[in-house]
Design brief:
alpha+beta; 4-stranded antiparallel β-sheet
Length: 255
């Protein structure tokens, strides 16, 4: 009788505490859990702060570092009217290429390339190409660096590449009758030789993209990670440390 009473009393007590105490995993701060998930798309893997997107919420990164995954093939970074294909991401930089110029130099979006200068700097190895569109036939007859565009783009059927600003300054009058001009960064290692077939060399250079470096990433992110946290942000502060048990301004407090 006493044994039965003790067993029943134990079961009631266990049930009581199980209803007032949530499972241990529910005590984990939700942003900590979500920011533990890296951004992954195609060959780009294990990407964390300052980037966010996909399964990573906005508070896992910085506002200007949103990535989108295109058909599970490659990440896309957007800035204003331009979209960039992300080719590589390192701890301090990423390699990007204009998506509208991927596999063709004949874009409908004839805008100068621009990036968010509050967050990024061009790497030292960047070089600007100047592309002219809708140039008269006299340009083609006078110089070798011209490329062709199909009429499907809505542009004139020829353009001209300037890879040398000195050349441009001495020959600028030649291009006055071209319809449009844009500037596109490339890596200095992919500079185009005058002896190469221009269409192919230009496209290779555009597809290799260019590097941008992140501006002023908080050094304190390292301290946050070392203390067991996940770097992130919130609606008030551009940097916070998401910890197992809540949010801290710099790093997790250890008991």
């Amino acid at each position: 009788m006493n044994s039965h009473y003790l067993s029943l009393s134990f079961i009631i007590t266990l049930f009581f505490f199980s209803t007032i105490l949530p499972p241990s995993h529910c005590n984990v701060y939700e942003p900590f859990v979500k920011c533990s998930r890296p951004f992954e798309c195609g060959s780009i893997k294990n990407i964390s702060y300052p980037f966010w997107g996909g399964d990573r919420s906005a508070y896992c990164g910085r506002k200007s570092f949103k990535l989108e995954c295109h058909n599970d093939e490659y990440p896309v970074y957007r800035f204003k009217e331009l979209e960039f294909r992300v080719l590589n991401i390192t701890r301090s930089s990423m390699t990007i290429a204009r998506l509208d110029l991927w596999d063709t130099p004949c874009s409908r979006n004839l805008l100068n390339t621009s990036v968010n200068y509050t967050e990024f700097n061009y790497a030292l190895n960047f070089h600007n190409l100047t592309l002219y569109y809708g140039c008269p036939p006299s340009v083609n007859r006078s110089f070798q660096n011209w490329f062709s565009c199909s009429s499907e783009t809505g542009n004139a059927n020829n353009g001209f590449l300037v890879d040398n600003e000195t050349f441009l300054s001495t020959k600028s009058q030649v291009f006055e009758n071209c319809n449009t001009t844009i500037k596109v960064p490339i890596s200095r290692t992919s500079l185009i030789s005058e002896t190469e077939f221009v269409d192919q060399a230009l496209q290779n250079a555009l597809n290799q993209g260019f590097d941008v470096q992140y501006r002023a990433l908080p050094i304190i992110c390292g301290g946050c990670v070392e203390s067991g946290g996940k770097c992130g942000s919130n609606s008030t502060y551009p940097f916070v440390c998401h910890c197992h048990d809540g949010e801290q301004p710099y790093l997790c407090l250890r008991n």
